[in-house]
Amino acid sequence: MERPTISVLINNYNYGRFVAQAIDSALSQQASNVEIIVVDDGSSDQSRSVLERYGSQVKVLFQENQGQAAAMNAAVRLSSGDILCFLDADDWWAPGKLSATAAAFRSNPQASLVYHRLQPTQNDGSPAFKPIPRTLCSGNLSTRLARSAGWWPFPMTSAIAVRRSAWDVAGDIPEQFRLSADAWLTGIYPFLGGVVALPDPLGFYRIHNNNWYRPADDAAMLRKRMAHWQATVEATNRFLSAHDLAGRLHLTDHYPYRVASARLEGADTRTRFRLALEGLFFAGEPNLLRRTRDALRTARDLPRLGQDVGLSESAG
To answer: Following CA atoms 204, 209, 215, 217 in sequence, which dihedral angle do they give, to the nearest 10 degrees?
Structure first.
């Protein structure tokens, strides 16, 4: 049997109601030499019975709950493809996703990561809003990331594919990334090779209560994001140092972190003006119009220092 060229790696935790759609979307791809691997990370719902229906079509590993990074690492260890394509069990792909991804890697031999937009959807599959990320970034992003503390309009897990040779250099995703393991992929791989962005929405991102992506954050979620950003900066710097790669990240360059802090504490006029100015020149957002709009909205919407910031503490 010919060795698979593409490995589809699905991580699942208690998404028995969604995982079949994810697997079916992988089985219906317009690509050859594809293997599908699902790692179930200790689900307690009906996931096992759903997964067992697929028989030999899908390779399945059931493990005790260890978090998203551990599930993705386990999937890679079971795989043999040259291209590793990640898919969250609550999302699904358009039929042309794998063929477009493989073509992008063939055309860009120095690329370590290929991604595309995702169409956010409601639980019933209807579109929620415009495809994300809005701004696309291609080429050598390492300089940009060094200036933005690693932040860029990055894709989420189900849009990401990496070259196995780059994975072999990067190693396993640190298991501290129990959630949002895509932060490791989008933070490290631009330092290992080029990035290719495909403009079409080749996948669907389901919006529901377990997502990080939400229209508004409460205080607890802001703190959770800030802790995650700080941990990601620290993990990236450890990686860059261990691999003798140039550049180090500084949390003071992380504009969303600074804005989140100001939202929690409130801002005086001077802080409001400074953050607006920093936003105008933030390296993480390449699109000038979007950067300007976001900077002005930040200056306008930040709560005043010493006043109730109006954020509840009841995070999901």
So the answer is: -140
Sheet of strand 111-121, all strands in order from the earlier edge strand to the far edge = 59-63, 34-41, 6-12, 83-88, 160-163, 111-121, 194-206, 92-93
pLDDT digits (tens, 9 = 90+) for 69-122: 999 999 999 999 999 999 999 999 999 999 999 999 999 999 999 999 999 998
R_g (Cα) of the chain, nearest Å: 20
Residue 45 shares a structural domain with residue 179 = yes
H or E stretch including 92? strand 92-93
* The model's pTM: 0.91
Query: Within 10 A of 55 (CB to CB), how many other CB atoms are there?
Result: 8
The burial of 180, by beta-carbon neighbours within 10 Å (0-12 exposed, 13-18 middle, 19 or more buried), is given as middle
Chosen domain end from 206, 232, 263:
206
Rounded to whole angstroms, how far apart are CA atoms 187 and 144?
Answer: 11
Name which of 114, 147, 152 is nearest 133 in CA terms: 152
User: What pLDDT band is residue 217 in, cutting at 50, 70 and 90?
Assistant: confident
Q: What DSSP state is assigned to residue 207?
A: -
Q: Is residue 17 part of a domain?
A: yes
| Neighbouring C-alpha atoms within 13 Å toward the C-beta of 203 | 36
pLDDT over threshold 80, residue 211:
no
